[in-house]
């Protein structure tokens, strides 16, 4: 039975705990054993929090017996990306620059989740300082894609995704600045939720770009995403009952999203769209020419803010960094203040136009990534390949970050090919309901 637990959704595990069918202590030990003994463990987990997990599981077991559970996910073990502060446990953000950094208190989202009864079993590997969509990290570890052990898993929440995909956590919590939840979720056939900027607290989270950083779950179902969002906020989960695609209006974004797309992601997307249409959704296809201009601001806005935050730490010990990541940070040094201000002013104009343009639709849809997970060894030896694949990997997801959208990626049935749904800012509840129906159609 315990092997079955490793494949269940977080919500199904929670229901079984509530029904007295699963003991949270036994569940946590099952996950810890699986994670400790898995062949890919060292590439997925940076460190375990076993003492904490066992104490939290025991408390959850007591609450379950007393019928005092704090949430549906009370007693369910999940993993945390190694940029969320954990009291007394190292939080290094995948970087040698932060080696042996031990916070004194938990990040706010971890405090919220713990208060809702979730069990923290460990910290997962990630791209160095979260600045890559590939998940390649020769400094700490490169997590493998569940569909190809020689390929990267996507970043920067690489271990968060693979901890779930390999059955080593019931769900993972990651961050998304340019696609860092949605890319690894898509490449490992999971559901990934990108939240609206400032909706979920980033207090106690190692930053990359404060004006773009968001937090969200990587999990096995849309229902899991809804309940994990509630746990992160300390709130109430969205009611997903009776969700339907009937007469839902979906807009396929044609601008940029399909440029240089590989055959497999395109096939997955096209097949998914056909299923959505068969389930009653109305599909329209439109261009939004200003999106190309918005995407051109990525280097100006992301790199300059990231370097502004990290330049003193980086330049004190640049040799500790992977060269490609170091170069990406340093590119922000060349951005002038007037160019940065002008880019933000123009981006805000485009965002207003975009939100007015998509307001009539239930969601905008596009391939989550135009490429499949690249080969890790080639990324290490071919710099041009690294740059090309890194930029392509994040191109479609950056649409959501630049426009301030809520976003969800769902598996399409084609391995490592996801379909992304984008909505207006703070439309998570509406988007989760829509994606619950889409998930059923795609299954």
What this model shows, in words?
The structure is a single chain. This protein has 443 residues and is an alpha/beta fold. The chain folds into two domains: 2-233, Amidase signature (AS) domain (Amidase signature (AS) enzymes), CATH 3.90.1300.10; 249-297 and 322-442, Amidase signature (AS) domain (Amidase signature (AS) enzymes). Helices cover 44% and strands 14% of the residues. It is built from 17 helices and 13 strands. The strands form two sheets. It has an eleven-stranded mixed sheet with strand order 1-3-2-6-8-7-12-13-11-9-10, with helices on both faces. A two-stranded antiparallel sheet has the order 4-5. Helix 6 (108-115) links the parallel strand 2 (77-81) and strand 3 (119-124). Helix 3 (24-37) runs antiparallel to helix 5 (50-65), helix 6 (108-115) packs across helix 9 (222-233) and helix 9 (222-233) packs antiparallel against helix 17 (428-442). The longest helix has 22 residues, at 337-358. It starts with a helix and ends with a helix. 56% of the residues are buried. The mean pLDDT is 97.
Which structural traits does this protein have?
single chain, 443 residues, alpha/beta, Amidase signature (AS) enzymes, two-stranded antiparallel ribbon, 13 strands, globular
């Amino acid at each position: 039975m315990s092997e079955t637990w490793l494949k269940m959704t977080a919500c199904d595990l929670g229901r079984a705990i509530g029904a007295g069918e699963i003991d949270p202590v036994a569940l946590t030990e099952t996950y810890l054993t699986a994670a400790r003994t898995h062949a890919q463990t060292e590439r997925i987990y940076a460190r375990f929090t076993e003492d904490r997990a066992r104490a939290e599981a025991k408390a959850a077991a007591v609450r379950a017996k007393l019928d005092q559970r704090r949430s549906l996910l009370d007693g369910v073990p999940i993993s945390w990306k190694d940029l969320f502060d954990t009291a007394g446990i190292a939080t290094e953000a995948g970087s040698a620059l932060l080696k042996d950094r031990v916070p004194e208190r938990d990040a706010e989202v971890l405090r919220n989740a713990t208060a809702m009864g979730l069990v923290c079993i460990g910290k997962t590997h990630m791209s160095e300082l979260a600045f890559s969509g590939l998940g390649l990290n020769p400094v700490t570890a490169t997590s493998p894609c569940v569909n190809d052990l020689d390929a990267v898993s996507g970043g920067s929440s690489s271990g968060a995704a693979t901890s779930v995909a390999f059955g080593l956590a019931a769900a993972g919590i990651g961050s998304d600045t340019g696609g860092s939840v949605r890319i690894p979720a898509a490449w490992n056939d999971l559901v990934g939720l990108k939240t609206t900027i400032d909706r979920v607290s980033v207090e106690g989270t190692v930053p990359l770009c404060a004006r773009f950083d968001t937090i969200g779950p990587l999990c096995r179902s849309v229902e899991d995403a809804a309940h994990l969002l509630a746990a992160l906020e300390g709130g109430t989960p969205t009611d997903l009952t009776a969700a339907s695609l009937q007469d839902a209006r979906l807009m396929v974004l044609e601008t940029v999203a399909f440029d240089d797309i590989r055959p497999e992601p395109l096939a997955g997307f096209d097949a998914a769209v056909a299923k959505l249409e068969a389930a009653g959704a109305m599909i329209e296809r439109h261009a939004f020419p200003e999106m190309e201009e918005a995407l051109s601001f990525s280097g100006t806005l992301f790199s300059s803010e990231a370097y502004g935050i990290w330049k003193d730490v980086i330049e004190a010990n640049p040799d500790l960094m992977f060269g490609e990541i170091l170069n990406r940070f340093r590119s922000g040094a060349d951005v002038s203040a007037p160019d940065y201000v002008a880019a933000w002013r123009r981006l805000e104009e485009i965002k207003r136009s975009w939100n007015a343009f998509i307001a009539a639709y239930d969601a905008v849809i596009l391939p989550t990534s135009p490429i499949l997970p690249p080969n890790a060894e080639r990324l290490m030896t071919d710099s041009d390949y690294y740059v090309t694949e890194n930029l392509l990997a994040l191109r479609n997801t950056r649409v959501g970050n630049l426009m301030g959208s809520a976003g969800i990626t769902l598996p399409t049935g084609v391995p490592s090919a996801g379909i992304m749904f984008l909505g207006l800012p703070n439309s998570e509840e509406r988007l989760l309901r829509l994606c619950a129906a889409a998930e059923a159609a795609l299954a």
